[in-house]
Amino acid sequence: MITILRIGHRPERDKRITTHVCLVARAFGADRILVDLADRELESTFNSVNERFGEGASIETGVKWRRIIGEWKGIIAHLTMYGMELDEAVAAIKDKDGDDNNNVLVIVGAEKVPGEVYKAADFNISVGNQPHSEVAALAMFLDRYHDGNAMKELKGKMKIIPSNKGKVVVEE
Ligand code: SAM
């Protein structure tokens, strides 16, 4: 079970990026998404994708992130450019996974992440030591965690058929 916790979301500023974090989480094999600030528009956009393209992860916004971290039973991973190397971290998480029922909380930030998150994390993980994007970091983490097979086959009302030219969409 993989839960993504997005902290520091500012609806007016991070609207598209947080939506992308959620869509990447859904498409790349996460089970649950939690966002700190309440954002009904984000929930509705996300749920509409689930409805049309297949039920992937669930979403909840307006969560108390300190409580979630404090009460977490399982592994806490925090994506940050200051962390340990990705492959080393994924291997260590998988080693530990068995003891924690594969219950992994993956934290991604937006603005500056408070020091307490670094302290609470079992693993602070960097996807390269350059600043880039939470969307890219999350996609790479999930793909490595799923051994390169992160992309989920979801069954929905609409199915996109891979095609070199033109859009091929089957509606049920
Ligand atoms: N300046 C902020 C800070 O000091 O915490 C981070 C801003 S960054 C655009 C937003 C998020 O992207 C970070 O909280 C982290 O989750 C993710 N991120 C950015 N670069 C990363 C990297 N190289 N490895 C892992 N995560 C990264």
Q: Helicity level, as a percent range? A: 25-40%
CATH level-1 class: Alpha Beta
| Helix/strand order | EHEHEHEHEHEHEE
Q: Class by helix and strand content? A: alpha/beta
> Which homologous superfamily in CATH is the superfamily?
SPOUT methyltransferase, trefoil knot domain
Cα shape: globular
Give the low-confidence spans: none
CATH-assigned fold name: Alpha/beta knot
Tally of discrete structural domains: 1
CATH architecture: 3-Layer(aba) Sandwich
**What small-molecule ligands were found?**
S-adenosylmethionine
What is the averaged pLDDT score? Answer: 93
Question: Radius of gyration, rounded?
Answer: 16 Å
Structure summary:
The protein is α/β, with parallel strands linked by helices and 172 residues long.
Structure description:
This protein is an alpha/beta fold and 172 residues long. It has a single domain, classed as SPOUT methyltransferase, trefoil knot domain (Alpha/beta knot, 3-Layer(aba) Sandwich). The protein is 40% helix and 23% strand. The protein has 6 helices and 8 strands. It has helices at residues 11-27, 40-53, 65-71, 86-97, 115-120, 134-145, and strands spanning 2-6, 32-35, 58-61, 75-85, 104-108, 123-126, 158-160, 169-171. Strand 2, helix 2 and strand 3 (58-61) form a beta-alpha-beta unit. Helix 1 (11-27) runs parallel beside helix 6 (134-145). The two termini are 29 Å apart. Bound molecules: S-adenosylmethionine. S-adenosylmethionine binds next to strand 4 and helix 6.
